[in-house]
Amino acid sequence: MSTASEEAVKQLRILMEDVEDESLRESYRNIHQGYPTETLLRFLKARDYNVHKSHQMLLDCLQWRTQNEIDNILTKPIVPVELYRGIRDSQLVGLSGYSKEGLPVIAIGVGLSTYDKASVHYYIQSHIQMNEYRDRVVLPSASKKQGRPICTCLKVLDMSGLKLSALSQIKLMTAITTIDDLNYPEKTDTYYIVNVPYIFSACWKTIKPLLQERTKKKIQVLKGCGKDELLKVMDYESLPHFCRREGSGSGSGRHISNGTVDNCFSLDHSFHQELYNYVQQQALVKGSSAAPIRHGSVHVRFPEPDTEGTKIFDTLESEFQKLGNDHKA
């Protein structure tokens, strides 16, 4: 860390020590999980090391968390299990393993996610629960195993099956992206994009110039399924199922071999089983009761998209519409 960065962290730490509201302080502890320096550094990076803006961003994040009871969201399971299975089958996200440096590898099926099995609020709830489980359980466990702070992850984005119909999902994706940008900043070390169809390549040329330089440096668009490049940073066992062979295509989302589930998107995968059981257990502890758990979806206030995010999704929507018109012509 440079001298300037150290000074910025010091100033921001002093400002955070002045926070008197105990609910905000508790939420801050849930965020940093014993690594306050790394947390402050993330918010500083997100605001180009402007201490005032970083401080305001962190305070806004804490307010959002307390107003929406985010610190209790891991005590609110999505039930019944059939509903949750439907969400897992249509919001394709999972933990496939760890990089050689010990960072969690998060796989995301961008092209095949349909978001059509539940309301928007359930998908938002599920997304935030995975964020919180990652930050409160997965990353602390990885830090303990590695003997050093592990505060970020790698993401592998599968574009298989991406179609013009994805236009209908842009509002939800905007909400999810905005929640992450404003409340979980700088949690991803690198984005690897694989199985890229023409529609993505066409949009990428327009979107890339709109990204901040810091974001551009994190994104790598790989050839094919990306297996050869990804094996430089992770072992074969940690590769997402859609990266394990060339030509995996859209069918890779359902790949099963040797009777064991390799698909990290599935509720039957060990990661999702652990997450689901954890939330169920936390709900019982919170309620101090063995009675059946009944919850509706958690309604979380969506923050307004920031300038960069709004511009990107507006541009993406426009490009999808152009491609649609060209296809009709």
UniProtKB/TrEMBL annotation:
<dbReference type="InterPro" id="IPR001251">
    <property type="entry name" value="CRAL-TRIO_dom"/>
</dbReference>
<dbReference type="Pfam" id="PF00650">
    <property type="entry name" value="CRAL_TRIO"/>
</dbReference>
<protein>
    <recommendedName>
        <fullName>CRAL-TRIO domain-containing protein</fullName>
    </recommendedName>
</protein>
<feature type="domain" description="CRAL-TRIO">
    <location>
        <begin position="80"/>
        <end position="240"/>
    </location>
</feature>
<dbReference type="InterPro" id="IPR036273">
    <property type="entry name" value="CRAL/TRIO_N_dom_sf"/>
</dbReference>
<dbReference type="InterPro" id="IPR036865">
    <property type="entry name" value="CRAL-TRIO_dom_sf"/>
</dbReference>
<dbReference type="Pfam" id="PF03765">
    <property type="entry name" value="CRAL_TRIO_N"/>
</dbReference>
<dbReference type="InterPro" id="IPR011074">
    <property type="entry name" value="CRAL/TRIO_N_dom"/>
</dbReference>
